[in-house]
Write a structure and sequence with these properties.
Strand order of the largest sheet: 1-2
Strand content: under 5%
Helix content: 40-55%
Number of helices: 5
Order of helices and strands: HHHEEHH
Largest sheet: 2 strands, antiparallel
Shape: rod-shaped
Number of strands: 2
Structural class: mainly alpha
Distance between the termini: 143 Å
Radius of gyration: 53 Å
Length: about 170
Amino acid sequence: MLKLLTPPIKTLTKRARDIRRTLDSHGLLTISRPGVLPEAIPYQDPIDEVCEEAPPRHMRSTTYAVAGMFLSLLLLAALVKIPIIVSGAGRIATDTPLVVLQPMDRAIIREMKVRPGDVVKKGQLLATLDPTFAGADLAALSSEQRMLIAQIRRLEAELSGVPSSKAAIR
């Protein structure tokens, strides 16, 4: 079967060459500017001489290498997913003001009953405070109260004219 196809392929190739020559001769197939004859190059301007020379092979290969790298990077960018991480400096602010919880007096927190983010209800125990400072304050205030009561009794006794030893007994 190949023997049957061989003669027509040769004739088709010859026919294609003939058509190309015909089109070239009429100027219909020329894509680029026609070249200058090699004999005319010495009579051209220096820039035309440079333009007519074929670029060196390493220069052409560099162009192809750069184009190949560009296309491979373009393909890589299309296929590879890259996670996007954005960092910046700033300050985070809430819409609502902060709620500050603090005891009326100084105290040490012995136990926290809730954690940040927990939902709490009205009346729920949030923390247990250490009673050491409260006990010390109670003792100091109790002694101050006894001292003030004694002072009030003394002053009342002075106003009524009763001796201070009887006022202390009351």
